[in-house]
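batch_manifest entry 22 of 60
target: HTH-type transcriptional regulator NorG
source organism: Lysinibacillus agricola
requested by: lab member K.T.
priority: normal
notes from requester: please return tokens only, no post-processing; we will run our own comparison against the previous entry in this batch. if the run fails, retry once and flag.
--- input ---
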Amino acid sequence: MLDINWRPDRNSPYRLNIQIVNFIKDKIATGEWPVGFKLPSQRTLSEIFCVNRSTVVSALEELAAEGLISGNAGGGTKVINNTWTLMSINHSHNWLPYISSGLHQTNQNIMQQINQAEFQPDIIRMGSCEPSPELIPNKMIQGVLKKLSKSMASLGYEEPKGNIHLRREVCTYLKTIGIEADPSSVLITSGVLQALQLISLGLLHTNSVVYVEKPSYLYSLRTFQSFGMQPSGIKLDEEGIEIKELVDRHRRRKGAMLFTIPTFQNPTGSVMSLERRKTLVDACDRERLPIIEDDVYRELWFDEQPPQPIKAFDNNGLVLYIGGISKNLSPGLRIGWIVGSEKVIERLADIKMQTDYGTSSLSQNVTTELFSSGLYYQHNDIMRKNVKIRRDVALEALKKYFTGIGTWNIPRGGYFIWLKLNEGISMYQLFTKALSRKILVHPGDLYEFHSDQYLRISYSYASLNEIDYGIKTLSELVAEQIF
Ligand SMILES: Cc1ncc(COP(=O)(O)O)c(C=O)c1O
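--- output ---
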């Protein structure tokens, strides 16, 4: 006899048979009554639920009509299906037409797979662009939270451009990297990604051309494309984006912008030379082509500081400079910033207010304290050392396992090695095979369409042993496809 203590509620607005239907569906959905499970007889169920037999019959008929159970005279009634779509049939509204008509495009299928796989417990993340949990300074943040719990002002909405204390701290920080900015020309955002969204919403229009490095992180996003903007890839050489190609392509096209990641670029890890930065800002000034400079990896340098940001050479307010703390401190705090001419910042702040009414006040307070106490700067030193150790392990593993199969750069900072395979292979096949061996890797075609020869290897998340094992396994899978 089944041990069921539940009874339908006679005071509920739902009819008794519907309550029984839902109760049985729950049992099936949770797997407690798996496919093949034999239900008690109608008489027993009516005794358990304290209802008339006709009520049970009506509930069972409903479940049978939905394809979840089936009964026959001899063998009793059994569960025959437990798929979610059947379980929800007739009860949930069909949202599909709405879902497919929303303005924002869905993520690329492979990106959705990556986002889900990242949270499988035993997965080795060789593609992530986030710091591993042990790189995030939990103790430090806990200490800050403890201190703030005694002194923090109430957590109300913040000013449209963000907490003024944080904006002042950001300006102090910016000075250390060569950017002179006033707090009035700084907007605090919820991560760098939101800064990009605000720019696309507020400053670009459908059909705007956005020049991007080829390859670029931007290709893996749907932010710009969703609003009808056209990415236009410009080649990179050893010093950075090729200016002649950019200028030839641009021809003062109205409404266009350049998006660049000059420092420890995602996905190539490359750094634009100082000379190229200066020439680029001059050329874009002549061409009246605004620049979006994404500098989120800047603080992760290993042996020497990278050249100053392009923004440091911008005398005419041409550059929208974006930075944040997601890569060097904590992505979960969701703190980023945009620096630009005041008019632009006001426009973006206005959109931000209409979008989310400001970035988390708690996160802004924590980040202000991290800056003002000096902990931010101290932590960067520790972070650089630890990320460099990871880079070295990855380079060692590549030497051991990929010699003869591919070539790679030696990053001077950031998270990425752009691995070039000697021959093109099916990237999707590699991705799925690696996933079946619990290795998550980002194929290069996420960052450069139709590319079949590159993998982005990230050493920021996996443990040192995992980095070695992950690269070894990848080399075996690649070799299987090439040879
Ligand atoms: C170049 C670049 N910009 C922005 C982001 C996103 O940063 P955030 O987490 O601050 O939104 C990433 C990380 O994935 C990135 O690689």
